Amino acid sequence: MRPSLLRSASQLLRRSRRDYSSAAAASQPERKVAILGAAGGIGQPLALLMKLNPLVSSLSLYDIAGTPGVAADVSHINSPALVKGFVGEEQLGEALEGSDIVIIPAGVPRKPGMTRDDLFNINAGIVKGLCTAISKYCPNALINMISNPVNSTVPIAAEVFKKAGTYDEKKLFGVTMLDVVRAKTFYAGKANVPVTEVNVPVVGGHAGITILPLFSQATPASNALSHEDIKALTKRTQDGGTEVVEAKAGKGSATLSMAYAGAVFADACLKGLNGVPDVVECSFVQSTVTELPFFASKVRLGKNGVEEVLGLGQLSDFEKEGLENLKGELKSSIEKGIQFAHAN
Asked: Where in the sequence numbering do the catalytic residues fall?
C-alpha cells in the first residue's frame, strides 16, 4: 500500500474515532450486544465492527462452533467493549442474558443458483430455536434479524414471541439496510454525486422484486438520470445479492457488505435506545403502511425501539407499479413464515 493511501486510511480512522467519541459521551449507559452466528461469514466481520463501536460496553459472541477463537481474536482490539465467546446450546442462555440488542446472522449462506427462499427450511428452524431462547433469557431486547429469508424469518420470530407471551412489535426488526447501502452506492455512481451525502429510502421486503428503492426520493436529487437509468438501478439493487454470489463463484455470498450494513443498523438502534433524537432508518417491521402485516419503510428509532413507522411519501408511477407488483410475493413469504412457526 502506498504511503499516501496509508495516511488517508489513518486520517479516516482518527476521524471515525472522534465522531464515535462525541456520540458516546461520558454518561452513556452500558449496552450489551449479542451476535448469534458470530463465527460465520457475516458474524465475524460484524463482531469486528461492533467491537469498534464505543456505544457497546459488552459484546457477546455465540455460535454452535468456533466462537472462542473469534472472541479471543476480536478481544485483542484496543476498544472498550468487553468480549465473551459462547459455544453450543448449553451456553446460549448465558450469551443472551442482559442483552439490549440481539443481532441474528445465523444460518447457511446463499450459493450459486440459490434463491433466498431455498434457504428457508434450514434457516427457519435455526431462527425459531434462537428466538425461543431470546424469549426466555432477554425478552426485552431489540432483535435485528439478518438471517434470510428476512421476509419469512421476521414473521417466524413474531409468532415465536407471541406464543411465549413476549412479543413487542416495536422491538423486532428485519435488517434491510444492505438494500439501502446498495441503492446509495449505485445511485451515487450513476448520478455522479458524493456517495457519503446520498440517501435513498428502500421499501417493501428483502428479496428480489420485493425490494423497492425509491429513487424519486433520493437526495441529492439528480436530473441526469433517465427512466431507463432508474429501471436499471432498481434491477441492480434488487439483484445485488446475486451479483455478489456469482462474482464469488460458489465461494461465498454478500458477507462483508452485509456485516457493514448490520453494524450501521445496530448503531442506529443503540443511538435510539440512548435517546439520540431523529434517528431514522429503513427496516422490515410490523406495519400498517400497506395492507400487509409486515413491510419495510422508514422507521424512527427511540428508547422503545420503533417510535414511529413512517409512510411511503410520494411515489413515481414506476414505483407505484413496483409496489403493486411486490405485494403478492411478499404476502406469500410472510404467510409461509407464519405457517412454519405454527406447524413446527
From this structure: 206
